[in-house]
Amino acid sequence: MNKYLYEFIIIFLNMILFLFLESCWVDKTKPNVVYMPDMYYSEAYEPYSDPYSYNKKDKNIKIPFFSKEKTSSLYPVEGTVSRNDLFYNLINIKNKGLNYSKNIIQNPLYSSHYEKKEITIKKGKKLYQINCSICHGKNGDGQGELVKNEKIFGIPNYKDRDLTIGSVYYVITYGKNNMNSYASQLNEKDRWRVSEYVMFLKNK
C-alpha cells in the first residue's frame, strides 16, 4: 500500500512541477526560447516597415536614406511621370463615348515614341492569345473554343466590322453588349497593344 502511495505522490509532484514551469511563460504571444533567432526575426527590410525591430536594440543601425528612419520606401524622383497619365489626351474617352473613339486611328504608343509598331504587335499577340482568343478565335474570326463548344454565341469576325484602333480600345476598356471590361486584367498600355493586334488581324 505504501508503495502505491509513494508512486502517486511522485506523479502528483511532477504534475505540480510541470504546471509551475508552464506558468513561468508569461507572454504567450512570443516564443519562450528562441534557438535560431534569425529564423524568427528576419534581417530583411520590407517596404513601408520599421527597419528597427523591438528585439534588435543592440543593432540600432542608422540608415540615413530611410524616410525619417521609419520606412525603406523612398519617394519618387522629382519629375517622375505617373503611368496613369501616360496618355493624358485620351483620359476623357469614356465621357465622349464609342462614336468619338472611332475617330482615333493612331496608336498613342507610337505618337509618344513609347515603342515601335513591330514590338507592339508582338506583345499584343501574346496578350490577345491569353485574354481574347478563347472567344474571338486565334485569327479574329469569332471561332474561339467557347464558340466551337457552343458556350457562347454572337462573336463577330473582325473583318466584318467597322473598327478603328480607338473603338477597339474603348470596348476593351469599358465593354460592350456581352463583353465585359478588361481594364482590370490589362493595363492601359497593354490594352493599346491588344487593340493594335486586333487591327492587324482585321487587315491581315
UniProtKB/TrEMBL annotation:
Membrane-spanning ranges: 6-26
Keyword Cell membrane (UniProt): no
One Pfam family of this chain: Cytochrome_CBB3
Residue span, Cytochrome c domain: 119-202
Record-linked InterPro entries: Cyt_c-like_dom, Cyt_c-like_dom_sf
Keyword list, A-Z: Heme, Iron, Membrane, Metal-binding, Transmembrane, Transmembrane helix
PANTHER family given in the database record: LIPOPROTEIN-RELATED (PTHR40394), QUINOL:CYTOCHROME C OXIDOREDUCTASE MEMBRANE PROTEIN (PTHR40394:SF2)
Name used for this protein in its record: Cytochrome c domain-containing protein
